[in-house]
């Protein structure tokens, strides 16, 4: 079921109150989904801050949340570079497609790269991590719907890519990520991703967004990427 989330641009105090309420609502949904799934461990909540106004980002930080997801390296640099100096516990996930010429910037800024999807990118990340002395946690993005317009390795090519990432590049691959097709039932894609992760003994599963994260939790998501349910509708570009 699709959900719509609205937030009027008013005073910062109103925004802060609304954000706090939204976070509490998401927390309740997560608690309920975990109970239904018989899970003790809750998934990591990644607040998807892409294209959100500064006042909403500030309100989420004020509410105590510290894990955020961004799609674009340049936008994330503008938003988070200075904030990292204030919030030492900030944790940033890259959840949007990454060009190889942005690998150095991504390695410098992010804590988790969720979008490794091809050998060329894996090699570029390995080079930049070695230069920077960082060994970031990485996920492989799987195109579970085999959509030609979407990033992610095709399911049949996962084994080969994982071998390149681990054996050749020495990347710290800890999990898989997917974005199901909007017109299909997400549960079958979550089940597929879980099966692939189990086959390769990968503990992390990044799946589920504002409208379907309860289903993702039922299938073992360890990270859920939630934007509009926290921030409200993104402003148009």
Care to give the gist of this entry?
With 237 residues, this protein is an alpha/beta fold. The protein is built from ten helices and eight strands.
Structure overview:
- This protein is 43% helix and 15% strand.
- It has helices at residues 12-37, 54-62, 73-80, 83-86, 103-109, 119-132, 158-168, 186-199, 213-218, 228-231, and strands spanning 44-48, 67-70, 91-94, 112-116, 137-141, 172-177, 204-206, 223-226.
- The protein is of the alpha/beta class.
- The chain is built from ten helices and eight strands.
- An eight-stranded parallel sheet has the order 7-6-5-4-3-2-1-8.
The secondary-structure class comes to: alpha/beta
Sheet of most strands = 8 strands, parallel
Q: Indicate the mean pLDDT.
A: 93
Give the DSSP E fraction (strand runs of 2 or more residues): 15-25%
Radius of gyration of CA atoms, rounded to a whole number: 17 Å
Trace the largest sheet across and list its strands.
7-6-5-4-3-2-1-8
**Low-confidence parts:** 4-9
Number of helices: 10
First-to-last CA distance: 26 Å
| H and E string | HEHEHHEHEHEHEHEHEH
Helix content: 40-55%
User: Total strand count, please?
Assistant: 8
What does the overall shape look like? globular
Features:
15% strand, 43% helix, single chain, 8-stranded parallel sheet, alpha/beta, 8 strands
Secondary structure: elements and pairs:
Layout: H1 12-37, E1 44-48, H2 54-62, E2 67-70, H3 73-80, H4 83-86, E3 91-94, H5 103-109, E4 112-116, H6 119-132, E5 137-141, H7 158-168, E6 172-177, H8 186-199, E7 204-206, H9 213-218, E8 223-226, H10 228-231
Parallel strand pairs: 1-2, 1-8, 2-3, 3-4, 4-5, 5-6, 6-7
Helix pairs in contact: 1-2, 5-6
């Amino acid at each position: 079921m699709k959900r719509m989330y609205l937030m009027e641009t008013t005073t910062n105090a109103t925004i802060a109150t609304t954000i706090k309420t939204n976070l509490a609502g998401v927390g309740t949904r997560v608690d309920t989904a975990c109970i239904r799934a018989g899970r003790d461990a809750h998934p990591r909540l990644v607040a998807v801050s892409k294209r959100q106004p500064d006042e909403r980002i500030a309100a989420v930080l004020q509410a105590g949340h510290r894990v955020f997801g961004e799609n674009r390296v340049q936008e994330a640099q503008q938003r988070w570079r200075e904030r990292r100096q204030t919030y030492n516990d900030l944790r940033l996930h890259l959840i949007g497609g990454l060009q190889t010429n942005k690998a150095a910037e991504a390695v410098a800024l992010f804590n988790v790269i969720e979008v490794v999807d091809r050998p060329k990118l894996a090699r570029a990340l390995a080079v930049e991590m070695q230069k920077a002395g960082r060994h970031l946690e990485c996920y492989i993005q799987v195109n579970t719907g085999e959509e030609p317009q979407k990033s992610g390795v095709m399911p049949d090519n996962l084994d080969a890519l994982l071998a390149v990432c681990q054996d050749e590049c020495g990347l710290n691959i800890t999990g898989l990520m997917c974005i199901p097709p909007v017109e299909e039932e997400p549960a079958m894609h979550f089940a597929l991703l879980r099966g692939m992760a189990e086959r390769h003994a990968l503990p992390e599963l990044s799946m589920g967004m504002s409208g379907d994260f309860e289903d993702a939790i039922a299938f073992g998501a360890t990270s859920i990427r939630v934007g509009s349910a926290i921030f409200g509708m993104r402003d148009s570009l």
